[in-house]
Amino acid sequence: MNEPVSMATAAPHLGLYVHLPWCTRKCPYCDFNSHTAGEAPPFIDYLDAVLLDLDRELKKASGRAIETVFIGGGTPSLFPVSAIERLMQALGPALAEGAEVSMEANPGSAEADRFRGYRAAGVNRLSIGVQSFDEVMLGRLGRVHGRAEALTAAEAARDAGFRAINLDLMYGLPDQTPEQALADLEQALALQTGHLSHYQLTLEPNTVFHARPPDLPDPDTVADMQQQCQRALAAAGLMQYEISAYAADAQQCRHNLNYWRFGDYLAVGAGAHGKLTHNDGRIERYRKVKIPALYMARVAEDRSDVEQRQLEADDCVLEFMMNALRLNEGFTPALFEARTGLPFGDVEARLQDACSRKLLARAEGHYRTTALGRDHLDTVLAAFLPEDGHAA
């Protein structure tokens, strides 16, 4: 299967990702496209470029309404309230009624003071990068905030009027014990935000931690942390709906669900990635120029896309499975056909084989990973690699 996809039917949900790339300091574990802010980041000039880029992106979408927005980084909460107001004003006519608008923030006191302004501008979901409530762990992670600021930020978000709040929390930190990981989680649960992103620290290429690895807990200890924490999350009423995402009823992140269901999303900002299903069924992925200064220059020349590629059938199969099988709900044959434009028969035999090996299960019309399949997801996905054995 190597022909370009051209069979997709109904247009999927449309999101928008906005990348604001500056941070106060680069964390040693971070592999995102982020840059140290320094004394005078070009916030105004950068936003001008983002808004010009946004106008062009909206034209690509042929009038489709944007149902979710995610403003990520970097640390978007470094941007002044006036900048987010301008962004939201530009977005206003394109937003669907009831659109979810998420924004990442760090728990520094200066940023927390801005939460009320962001809420008034139209941001209605805040994702706070806590990572840990332990002062020692925060130091090892190179974070610029402490425990008190993390606690204050969560309360400040609620006081500012946010009813949808996510906390990012990591486990498997340098020299962390299961007891410490559970204490972190219990503190997060006590804040009752309704959503937690709870994920293991990994050593990503091109990071300080990859070059100079810290002493991390062994795999058995990390597995123990995960099991204890998952029991605590379930007891608190936060149900796992994706590998690293837990939510109370109706608190799931709609923007991220769109990614995992292989939906569409526009992209603006340095290094941002987008995916778009065209009216003729072609599915395209694209990426923006990564360096902020170069991105701004390229936007002025209408050349901000640095990479564009049309997905072929094999690409669609693998990418769909990589996303959908992260979800506890899995997927239906109808969703596969609607999102990829391919007949379900192209993958049915491979799914049945995974079911026979107890890696997947089918129930109520959904294919889902089993507990075994979740632990060996790479093995499951290997069955959907292109015929030459390599991902495109």
Topology:
Elements: E1 14-20, E2 22-23, E3 35-36, H1 43-60, E4 66-73, H2 81-91, E5 95-105, H3 109-112, H4 115-121, E6 125-131, H5 135-140, H6 147-159, E7 164-171, H7 178-190, E8 194-200, H8 208-211, H9 219-235, E9 239-242, E10 245-247, H10 254-260, E11 264-268, E12 273-277, E13 283-288, H11 292-300, E14 305-310, H12 313-324, H13 333-340, H14 345-356, E15 360-363, E16 366-369, H15 371-375, H16 377-382
Parallel strand pairs: 1-4, 1-11, 2-3, 4-5, 5-6, 6-7, 7-8
Antiparallel strand pairs: 8-10, 9-10, 12-13, 13-14, 15-16
Helix pairs in contact: 1-2, 1-11, 2-4, 7-9
End-to-end distance, in Å? 12 Å
CATH architecture of the largest domain, by name, is Alpha-Beta Barrel
- The total count of strands amounts to 16
Number of structural units classed as domains: 2
Low-pLDDT segments: 1-8
Task: Please compute the radius of gyration using only Cα atoms.
Answer: 21 Å
Secondary-structure-based class equals alpha/beta
Query: Which strand order does the major sheet show?
Result: 9-10-8-7-6-5-4-1-11
In CATH, what is the homologous superfamily of the largest domain?
A: Aldolase class I
Number of helices: 16
The level 1 CATH classification of the largest domain is Alpha Beta
| pLDDT averaged over residues | 93
Strand content is 15-25%
What is the third-level CATH name, the topology of the largest domain?
Answer: TIM Barrel
| Helix share, percent | 25-40%
Shape: globular
Biggest sheet statistics: 9 strands, mixed
